[in-house]
Amino acid sequence: MRFDVITLFPEVFAPFLTSGVTRRAYESGLVDVKLWNPRDFADGNYRRVDDRPFGGGPGMVMLAEPLALCLAAIRAERAPCSDPVVLFSPVGAALNHAAVEAWSESNGAVLICGRYEGIDQRFIDTSVTHQISLGDFVLSGGELAAMVLLDAVARLQPGVLNDEGSHQMDSFNPALDGLLDCPNYTRPEDWQGQTVPTELMSGNHARIERWRREQRLGLTQQTRPELVEKARMAGSLTAKDEAFLAAVAGKSIAKP
Ligand SMILES: C[S@@+](CC[C@H](N)C(=O)[O-])C[C@H]1O[C@@H](n2cnc3c(N)ncnc32)[C@H](O)[C@@H]1O
User: Which among 113, 115, 139 is the best mutation to test ligand 1's pocket, defined by most ligand atoms within 8 Å of the CB?
Assistant: First the structure.
């Protein structure tokens, strides 16, 4: 799996690629990340990568030509040439678990980080195959979005997390029927007068698992009811689950 990232700020990726549990995925090349600066493909003494927008208005627009030359250089290294070219942009569909899972099973992609007011539309029309948004807000650049995708993809690779399969216990995972994760507790048993739920201290595996399932159901019903409905439509809820949901309907489970 290889990701080629086109960015005017490659330096912001260094601490990200060398920190935390995902570091070994990048360092071992399991998720191979190569950074490319379009400035290296720009003309003139100033190596200009942006210019004023036609029609006027504030800000600058990234030039098509340095991006096209950069992409051509990447394509010369990548095989096959038909790998996706992703632009991070508010225009795209919001990233979610299903999309992350699909990317985590792919060969990777070319990731383009926009800056300024964005990129000359003619480059987008000719070269970009996918657009991904992080949500309904505007970032200063696509670098954070690229790191979000790389992180989410890397932690799904086998052997990256310390505890194999632990990502399956995370929110949105199909292994948990797409529900939100349950609350977690650790030592001390009493923290500032707040104790740990007795079920977790019972040592009874079945009781602990039932408590966790009910917490996931209740929390998800309270904050993201559409996810419970999705699990229901998929046939993933048992009669016990439905009885629990009916019993807690209208009651507050946890702080949203
Ligand atoms: C200042 S933004 C440009 C915003 C653009 N003028 C607009 O209003 O949609 C610069 C770059 O940040 C990235 N970006 C901004 N918001 C984003 C979001 N919600 N999701 C993904 N990337 C985003 C894009 O690559 C964009 O080209």
Answer: 139
Catalytic residue among 115, 155, 212, 213: 155
Q: How many CA atoms lie within 13 A of 161 on its CB side?
A: 14
Give the tokens for residue 255. 């702080």
Q: What is the pTM of this model?
A: 0.95
Rounded to 5 degrees, φ, ψ at 128 are -90, 130
pLDDT tens digit at each of 256 positions of the chain: 999 999 999 999 999 999 999 999 999 999 999 999 999 999 989 999 999 999 999 999 999 999 999 999 999 998 766 799 999 999 999 999 999 999 999 999 999 999 999 999 999 999 999 999 999 999 999 999 999 999 999 999 998 887 767 788 899 999 999 999 999 999 999 999 999 999 999 999 999 999 999 999 999 999 999 999 999 999 999 999 999 999 999 887 666 5
Q: Tell me if domain 2-154 and domain 170-248 are identical in fold.
A: no
Whether 90 is a known active-site residue: answer yes
Strand partners for 210:
none
Choosing from 10, 53, 90, 183, the catalytic residue is 90
What is the Cα Rg of the chain in Å?
23
d(CA 75, CA 68): 10
- Domain boundaries, given as residue ranges, for the chain: 2-154, 170-248
- CATH class for domain 2-154? alpha beta
CATH topology of domain 170-248: Trp Operon Repressor; Chain A (1.10.1270)
